[in-house]
Amino acid sequence: MIITVEGIDGAGKNTLVRAVREQVEADVLAFPRYDDSVPAQLAAEALHGRMGDLTDSAYAMATLFALDRHGAKEQLEAYVGSDRVIILDRYVASNAAYSAARLRDDAVIDWVHDLEFGRLGLPKPDLQVLLATPPATASQRARSREAADASRARDAYERDADLQERTFEAYRRLAQRQWAGRWLVTTDPATILQEIT
């Protein structure tokens, strides 16, 4: 199974992934892969203001994040049709939600679907979990994380509270549509474990 955990910055994705992993024998992979992927590293540079006007283009940023995932395609395909489980901390839906929020237009959602699942051939997830953490709570967590750890400086997306609100609403629309597969909206690890079982 490929299970994705989705949500805005500070929603608690990492915490939830760890909680589920303790109960299920699963591998974990987080996107973006900043340590291993040149496209992810370029996106990070852009989000911290070191790539000129690159962040001005939602399509350019979405393409960098898509290419990061494409770099893990072979690794992900090993879980398709197997008895192994991988939990992904963010996946394709994050590109769709953030792009729709940035452009204020859901038409880009179909473009992301075609790019990542079509042209790049990434496997679709078996289950997508949206963490239903309210944006105000998530924002406070992101600020606290930054204050406690200088290496966790918030990027341009994380500092934009309005963008985070719009992204959360875009995620909710994706979940309502059951976009690219099954969705579960929760903050409860037990509910996720029950669904996996």
Can you give the mean pLDDT?
90
Number of domains: 1
**Going across the major beta sheet, what is the strand order?**
2-3-1-4-5
Structural class: alpha/beta
Overall shape: it is globular
* Main sheet attributes: strand count, strand direction, barrel closure: 5 strands, parallel
End-to-end C-alpha gap: 11 Å
CATH superfamily: P-loop containing nucleotide triphosphate hydrolases
Q: Please tell me the CATH architecture by its name.
A: 3-Layer(aba) Sandwich
Number of strands: 5
CATH topology: Rossmann fold
Assembly of the depicted chains: single chain
Organism: Corynebacterium halotolerans YIM 70093 = DSM 44683
GO cellular component, one term: cytosol
GO molecular function: ATP binding; dTMP kinase activity
EC number: 2.7.4.9
Structural summary, described in words:
With 197 residues, the protein is α/β, with parallel strands linked by helices. The protein has one domain: P-loop containing nucleotide triphosphate hydrolases (Rossmann fold, 3-Layer(aba) Sandwich). The chain has a five-stranded parallel beta sheet, with helices on both faces. Helix 5 runs antiparallel to helix 6. The N and C termini lie close together (11 Å). The mean pLDDT is 90.
Map the helices and strands.
Blueprint: E1 2-6, H1 13-23, E2 27-30, H2 38-47, H3 58-70, H4 73-77, E3 86-89, H5 92-103, H6 107-119, E4 127-131, H7 135-148, H8 156-159, H9 161-177, E5 183-186, H10 189-196
Parallel strand pairs: 1-3, 1-4, 2-3, 4-5
Helix pairs in contact: 1-10, 2-3, 3-5, 5-6, 5-9
